[in-house]
Amino acid sequence: REIEAIKNVSFEVPHGKVMGVVGANGAGKSTLMRAVGGILPPTSGRIEVHGRVSTLLSLGVGFNRKLTGRENVVLGGLAAGLTRAQLREKYDEIVAFAELEDFMDMPMRTYSSGMYGRLAFSVAVNMDPDILIIDEALSVGDARFRRKSANKMKELCSEDRTVVLVSHALQTVRDLCDHAIWLDHGVMQMWDEPEAVVDAYTEFLEVGQDALTLEDV
């Protein structure tokens, strides 16, 4: 049996804009992000990406749990195209943002899920990417760190960077994004302003726009 995760999806994200992606579980959002990030090649069509990409996919995709936090930061930076000199300049900033100064020389298999997520988020957002792809990974750490992450995202979105954001937190999509698309079973149902897409999507789900549907639960 062959399943097409994405079917004839076509859109563009102008430089410096923030694109939100919404849809139910199984809609094809993560597959689309992996394709845009260069992890999964498309079976047909083409994907054009102009600029250096940093990805935060399912928190820490690409991290090696047997290696230390320090070693994973180096590997992540090199994979993102940074030189070792640039990494040395960025390292302290990454560690300070993640608040893991005492744990960077420990294997990541010893990290809690919150620590793992904080380091993954810090690596992704502190690599000075031209394009940042985030897949359902903003709610990391405790409430204080989530606020810190949200503020960092707002800062990045205001710096003329291109961001593609997958999130079930629909209020976040409304607040941060310039445009949004709605996927359902691999098909793009809508591409419009965030307000219009969120309204149509919540109406489709027949859940309404209460506090539980507008934020992660």
Written description of the protein model:
The protein is an alpha/beta fold and 217 residues long. Helix content is 39%, strand content 15%. The chain has 8 helices and 6 strands; from the N terminus they run E-H-E-H-H-H-E-H-E-H-E-E-H-H. The protein has helices at 29-36, 69-79, 84-98, 113-125, 143-157, 170-176, 194-205, 211-214; strands at 18-22, 53-57, 131-135, 162-166, 179-184, 187-192. A 6-stranded mixed beta sheet has the order 2-3-4-1-5-6, sandwiched between helices. The longest helix is centred in the middle third of the chain and has 15 residues, at 84-98. The radius of gyration is 17 Å and the shape is globular. The protein starts with 17 loop residues before the first strand and ends with a helix.
In short:
With 217 residues, the protein is an alpha/beta fold. The protein has eight helices and six strands. Strands 2-3-4-1-5-6 form a six-stranded mixed sheet, sandwiched between helices.
Q: What is the fold's blueprint, element by element?
A:
Blueprint lengths: L17 E5 L6 H8 L16 E5 L11 H11 L4 H15 L14 H13 L5 E5 L7 H15 L4 E5 L3 H7 L2 E6 L2 E6 L1 H12 L5 H4 L3
Parallel strand pairs: 1-4, 1-5, 2-3, 3-4
Antiparallel strand pairs: 5-6
